[in-house]
From TrEMBL:
Pfam family, one: UVB_sens_C
Protein name as catalogued: Protein root UVB sensitive 4
Transmembrane segments: 145-166
Similarity comment: Belongs to the RUS1 family.
Domain of life, source organism: Eukaryota
Keyword Transmembrane helix in annotation: yes
Alphabetized UniProt keyword annotations: Membrane, Transmembrane, Transmembrane helix
InterPro entries cross-referenced by the UniProt entry: RUS_fam, UVB_sens_C, UVB_sens_RUS_dom
Positions of the Root UVB sensitive protein C-terminal domain: 260-354
Keyword Membrane: yes
Annotated ranges, domain Protein root UVB sensitive/RUS: 1-191
């Protein structure tokens, strides 16, 4: 990269080289600020996916830096893009590092685990620097061969690096509750009557790079009804039926994807002041509702549209009331088993959209 901006050549202008370098670093740091501000909640709710995706981004940025000597006229463009990607990756690494280290600190030795992680990073960085210095010494008289060797070694080391990160994240078992992990726990409770351990949920959760897991029929979402789509009549009737004692309610939400017909979400709407127990109860009730709807999927797929007859409305309210009673009955035992399995039950970590709340006005 120094050769790309002309360091070492008498014809280069030091001031121009310095300006390019400052612009490169400045754009990278600005992008890092924007990235961390916009995705703050994702570092907790989608830690593994964000961590691995930014690792891929970091590897691609190294490849861009290798291209700067080949295209010195585009140094500022290539170096700036590479530095933006590196700064984003660094921001994610620092933001998620403590949570990853905490998952390995089984004896509350977080400081020791963090120190050993730094030792590993320093050792491998030194090995990489030593290898780079050795290659430069061996091929100092043949710069073309050295450049070709770098491009040959880069994909091999990148693959090894990403494979190591992927395998490492598979062994990170987070004890914090998110909507996705809590849904896995509650579905396991409904099907088998027990709460899975963090390691079991971690295996089922996976890294989910492309966000394809959990795409099931009648997906459950936490949040508020969208204002840009038509609200189903059953949802309107549900909102009219809530009282001041309710801290959440279950309703339906229509959604559509590209080249697909309109489908339905099961939506859990949380009220301002809702506690962790209300979130667990609401998601448990939603899982019970989904299980009931799936038993007669053809009927509900055909019946739940913008217009709801009296018979369908009565059946829907019967389903929601039955599921509410079952969730209320099971909640104490579910909460006890979640705590006994080693989960952190004080809070449920939600994304920015999932943190939206409704206000109840009693007129």
């Amino acid at each position: 990269m120094f050769r790309a901006i002309g360091i070492g050549y008498s014809r280069s202008l030091p001031s121009a080289a310095a300006l390019n370098w400052v612009l490169k670093d400045g754009l990278g740091r600005l992008s890092r600020c924007i990235y961390t501000a916009s995705l703050a909640s994702a570092f907790d709710t989608n830690l593994k996916r964000v961590r691995f995706s930014t690792s891929v981004l970091f590897s691609l940025s190294v490849g861009l830096e290798l291209l700067t000597p080949t295209f010195p006229q585009y140094f500022l463009l290539l170096a700036s893009i590479a530095n933006i990607a590196k700064q984003i990756s660094l921001a994610c690494y620092l933001a998620t590092g403590s949570a990853v280290h905490r998952s390995f600190a089984i004896a509350d030795n977080l400081g020791e685990v963090s120190a050993k992680a730094q030792i590993q990073s320093v050792c491998f960085d030194n090995v990489g620097l030593a290898l780079a210095a050795l290659l430069n010494m061996l091929f100092k008289n043949n710069q073309r061969l050295l450049a070709a060797l770098l491009f040959a070694v880069y994909p091999i080391f990148t693959a090894i690096d990403l494979l190591g990160i992927y395998q490492g994240l598979k062994h990170v078992h987070l004890q914090t509750l998110t909507k996705g992990r809590l849904e896995i726990i509650l579905n396991n409770w409904i099907d088998f009557g027990c709460v899975p351990l963090p390691a079991e949920v971690s295996n089922e959760e996976g890294i989910d790079i492309f966000n394809v897991k959990g795409k099931r029929v009648w997906p459950v979402r936490i949040g508020c009804l969208g204002t840009k789509v038509k609200i189903p009549e059953l949802s309107m009737m549900t909102m009219r039926s809530i009282s001041s004692k309710d801290y959440y309610f279950i309703c339906l939400e229509s959604y559509s994807r590209l080249n697909q017909s309109e489908k339905q979400n099961i939506l859990v709407c949380l009220r301002e002041g809702a506690a962790t127990s209300d979130i667990i109860a609401g998601l448990l009730q939603a899982c019970y509702v989904r299980k009931t709807l799936l038993k007669n999927r053809t009927f509900w797929d055909r019946s739940l549209d913008s217009y709801a007859s009296d018979a369908i409305s009565k059946e829907w309210f019967r389903v929601t009331e039955d599921s509410r009673e079952r969730a209320k009955k099971d909640l104490p035992m579910v909460s006890e088993q979640i705590s006994a399995a080693g989960w952190a039950v004080k809070n449920v970590l939600l994304s920015t959209e999932e943190q939206l709340r409704y206000s109840f006005v009693d007129d």
